[in-house]
């Protein structure tokens, strides 16, 4: 069965890896990208829409697919203005979920983060938690929320704080065993593999912590 997917955030580290996986999968015949800049990947499957992501609701007629993948996110260091941060990390994913529901798309997979909690006193954790809450509130048939820990991999842009954090996490990773596994640094390729896997094998609503992301990805080594 041929499938159409939507990816939001395909220019980012995880979103780009996910895009490459969907291109390589013959079951996907069309991949719609909604973003503010081009991905610079050539494929007959890609249908690219360069838009104002803060006005995503205007794309309702184009927002049709079998599955939606949301890889949108920023960081406190990159987006210091809290209102803008909320517009990105809460506003875009929740708008996408509302469009998914309105257009009767059955599957929505979104990246959140470890520590997400709508009742948290920490602003960034609270925003992620509110995003999760309001996406689940759309009652999309198959909704999967991934909560990765610190994401490894090489970015196009240099982030000093993140680079230092990754260096420390590489040293600590072997110590994270048992219940602490969810704190291990995770590679974006594992997240992308997990997103694609749960979109095609799970028919429920789930919140997937980082250790389970890794387990699901490793069970699909052919990705």
UniProtKB/TrEMBL annotation:
Lineage: Bacteria, Pseudomonadati, Bacteroidota, Flavobacteriia, Flavobacteriales
Official protein name in the record: NAD(P)H-binding protein
Residues annotated as domain NAD(P)-binding: 9-149
TM region positions: none
Organism whose genome encodes this protein: Polaribacter marinaquae
């Amino acid at each position: 069965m041929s499938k159409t997917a939507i990816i939001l955030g395909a220019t980012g580290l995880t979103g780009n890896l996910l895009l490459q996986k969907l291109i390589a999968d013959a079951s996907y015949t069309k991949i719609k990208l909604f973003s503010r800049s081009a991905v610079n990947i050539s494929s007959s499957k890609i249908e690219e829409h360069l838009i104002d992501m803060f006005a995503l609701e205007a794309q309702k007629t184009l927002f049709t697919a079998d599955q939606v993948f949301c890889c949108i996110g920023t960081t406190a260091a990159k987006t210091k203005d809290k209102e803008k941060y909320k517009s990105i990390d809460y506003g875009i994913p929740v708008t996408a979920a509302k469009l998914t529901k309105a257009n009767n798309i059955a599957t929505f997979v979104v990246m959140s983060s470890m520590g997400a909690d709508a009742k948290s006193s920490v602003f960034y954790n609270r925003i992620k938690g509110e995003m999760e809450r309001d996406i689940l509130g759309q009652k999309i048939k198959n909704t999967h929320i991934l909560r990765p820990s610190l994401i490894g991999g090489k970015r196009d842009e240099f982030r000093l704080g993140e680079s230092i954090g990754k260096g420390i996490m590489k040293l600590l990773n072997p110590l994270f065993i048992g219940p602490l596994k969810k704190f291990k640094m995770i590679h974006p390729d594992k997240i992308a593999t997990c997103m694609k896997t749960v979109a095609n094998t799970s028919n429920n609503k789930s919140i997937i912590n980082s250790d389970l992301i890794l387990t699901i990805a490793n069970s699909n080594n052919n990705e």
